[in-house]
Amino acid sequence: MICRADPVTCFRSASYTQVQTFHLAESASIVLLDWITSGRKSMGEDWDFLRYHSVNEVFVEGRRVARDVLLLDNSFLDTQSASESCSSNATSRVPLRTLKDRLAPYSCYAMLLLYGPQTHGVVTDLQAKYRTISIFKRAAPERFLWSLTPVDDGKGTVIRAAGVDTEDVKNWFKEALKGLEAVVGIDEYRKVFI
Predict the structure, then answer these.
(1) DSSP string, 88-134
(2) pLDDT per position as a tens digit, 15-40
(3) Pick from 98, 51, 40: nearest CA to 73
(4) Neighbour-count burial of 2, counting CB atoms closer than 10 A to its CB (0-12 exposed, 13-18 middle, 19+ buried)
């Protein structure tokens, strides 16, 4: 099963919650991509939503093998001005940072879960690629970052990614998951990454 929707793009002041639960048989495989963008940039929105909450759970034969939760909360911005006006020592408080301040320079964050026998080839390729990454201090942030974490004793893998642009993330996943063409067919694979 490939579950890859377009990235969630929240509009200004939006509050978004999603819960996705998948139940698999022991022999099943899943490729689950959950990603979010900073907003409608053409409208001047950049991490301007109030709240984003996403939960993804995968069960195999009734046993939870993965649970991913992402909470991005800007809602304190609505209440901050009211509470500051009531506080006698508002100037001594540490200023709260917006999502834009905390998540910059990236405008797209993604979580990819690969689980099951039909994903092993892709996972093996990604693990080899991950071992070649060098970590050192840089003068400026990279355009694209990713990490790899095994789950359920190596039966699954979670990839986390961040990109300056949504296209950076999309293009990386399109190339990184190319091995799935042999599983789902070239035409179906290309439909996923139009």
Answers:
(1) TTGGGSPPPPPHHHHHTT-SEEEEEEEESGGGHHHHHHHHHHHHT--
(2) 999 999 999 999 999 999 999 999 99
(3) 51
(4) middle
Burial label for 152, CB within 10 Å (0-12, 13-18, 19+), is middle
Q: Report the predicted TM-score, pTM, of the whole model to 2 decimal places.
A: 0.86
Bridge-based pairing of strands 2-4 and 30-37 is parallel
Q: Tens of pLDDT along 117-166?
A: 999 999 999 999 999 987 777 888 889 999 999 999 999 999 999 999 99
Q: What angle do CA 116, 1, 163 make, to 5 degrees?
A: 90
Q: What is the DSSP letter of 43?
A: G
Radius of gyration of the chain (CA): 19
| H or E segment and range at residue 191 | helix 186-192
| Spatial CA neighbour of 115 closest among 24, 7, 35 | 24
Q: What are phi and psi of 47, to 5 degrees?
A: 55, 40
Residues 12-49: b if buried by 16+ CB within 10 A, e if exposed: eebebeeeeebebeeebbbbbbbbbbbbeeeeebbbbb
In this structure, are residues 126 and 156 in contact, taking their beta carbons and an 8 Å threshold? Answer: no
Using the structure block, give the residue that is written with the tokens 């793009």.
9
